């Protein structure tokens, strides 16, 4: 059958379908193309993860690649003061005869639809969108007069969470609106890590970056080293060194790198600098720190086969180094 006959046959089949059936097919096609990963039969993946302190409780939280903010199901139970480590303790408690009747249906529906997702490491996990915790806390506070004596702690903990979220929320909104967070932290880091930097470059030279580091870059970027005896490497390796060594050095989030850039600016037309960056690091804090950073990256890179694996493992070990702005520290081969 030629293409024109196939097209005619497709049109005829479409016309034979009811309006309801055509609508259903269109809806499924739209979900497959534009819907959430789970609507396409895929497991949502975390892009970043961290720990959110709520009073004395540490809550595991995640941001998915589709932008949703999640709280681990087990962490929600801990946040509410439930002693069991299992996430099922939350559902069992909320499903009790007294408490269960006080939870609004809308909140119950949210709790019944947990999200199975893939964290940065480990087995698939169960979580809820972060706003579900706030909705649940509102419901527990409203239900407080009717709770049994051994359930009162839930309403009390819910109020603590709501108050903490409100305080952090208003501060975060103001800081974001004014740009205070980035400016303040950057200045604090600069003052804190100034002690690592020398005013003048060292007057002697030695190669501080071991060949093991460069071998990691060759391997993960799929490059063949043509001359193993030379100390010259591809120019873009300097960008990788900035990304993996200097940017996260001593958890400074780039503050040390900024100081080094000021001390050792680009002076040549090809982008070169007069000195090596490490020549401005002092012997007591800076040099031991950079050596430790190098060997941590080498250790991370030993098990990585691709640049994606290297980057993923690096950010698992140094989550604070993950870029927070689109395009920040972009991979040259991205």
Which structural traits does this protein have?
about 325 residues; alpha+beta; 3 domains; 5 strands; disordered C terminus
Description:
There is one protein chain. This protein has 334 residues and is α+β, with helices and mostly antiparallel strands. It has three domains: 3-34; 46-178, no CATH class; 192-321, no CATH class. It is 50% helix and 9% strand. It is built from 14 helices and five strands. Strands 1-2-3-5-4 form a five-stranded antiparallel beta sheet. α7 packs across α8 (152-178), α9 crosses α12 and α10 runs parallel beside α13. The radius of gyration is 27 Å and the shape is elongated. The two termini are 44 Å apart. Residues 6-11, 30-34 and 326-334 have low confidence and may be disordered.
Mean pLDDT figure: 78
* Spatial strand arrangement across the major sheet: 1-2-3-5-4
Q: Could you give the distance between the termini? A: 44 Å
Profile the largest sheet: 5 strands, antiparallel
Q: Round the Cα radius of gyration to an integer and report it.
A: 27 Å
Please specify the SSE layout and strand pairing:
Blueprint: H1 3-16, H2 19-34, E1 46-54, E2 57-64, E3 69-72, H3 73-79, H4 88-94, H5 97-100, H6 105-112, E4 115-117, E5 125-129, H7 130-143, H8 152-178, H9 180-193, H10 211-220, H11 237-246, H12 255-263, H13 286-302, H14 307-317
Antiparallel strand pairs: 1-2, 2-3, 3-5, 4-5
Helix pairs in contact: 7-8, 9-12, 10-13
């Amino acid at each position: 059958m030629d293409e024109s006959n196939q097209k005619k046959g497709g049109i005829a089949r479409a016309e034979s379908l009811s309006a309801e059936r055509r609508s259903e097919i269109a809806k499924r096609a739209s979900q497959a193309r534009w819907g959430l990963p789970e609507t396409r039969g895929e497991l949502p993946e975390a892009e970043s993860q961290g720990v959110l302190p709520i009073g004395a409780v540490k809550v595991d939280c995640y941001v998915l690649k589709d932008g949703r903010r999640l709280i681990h199901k087990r962490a929600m139970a801990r946040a509410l003061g439930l002693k069991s480590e299992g996430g099922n303790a939350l559902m069992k408690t909320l499903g009790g005869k007294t408490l269960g009747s006080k939870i609004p249906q809308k909140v119950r529906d949210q709790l019944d639809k947990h999200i199975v997702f893939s964290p940065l490491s480990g087995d698939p996990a169960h979580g809820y969108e972060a706003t579900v915790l706030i909705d649940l806390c509102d419901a527990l506070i409203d239900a407080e007069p009717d709770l049994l004596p051994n359930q009162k702690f839930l309403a009390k903990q819910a109020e603590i969470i709501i108050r903490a979220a409100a305080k952090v929320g208003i501060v975060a909104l103001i800081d974001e609106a004014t740009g205070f967070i980035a400016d303040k932290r950057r200045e604090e880091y600069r003052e804190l890590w100034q002690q690592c930097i020398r005013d003048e470059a060292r007057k002697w030279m030695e190669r501080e970056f071991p060949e093991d580091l460069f071998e990691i870059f060759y391997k993960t970027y799929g490059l063949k080293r043509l001359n193993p005896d030379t100390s010259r490497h591809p120019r873009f390796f300097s960008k990788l060194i900035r990304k993996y060594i200097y940017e996260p050095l001593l958890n400074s989030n780039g503050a040390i790198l900024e100081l080094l850039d000021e001390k050792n600016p680009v002076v040549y037309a090809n982008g070169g600098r007069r000195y090596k960056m490490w020549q401005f690091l002092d012997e007591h804090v800076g040099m031991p720190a950079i050596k430790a950073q190098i060997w941590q990256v080498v250790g991370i890179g030993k098990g990585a086969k691709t640049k994606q694996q290297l980057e993923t493992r690096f950010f698992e070990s140094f989550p604070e180094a993950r870029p927070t702005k689109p395009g920040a520290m972009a991979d040259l081969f991205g």
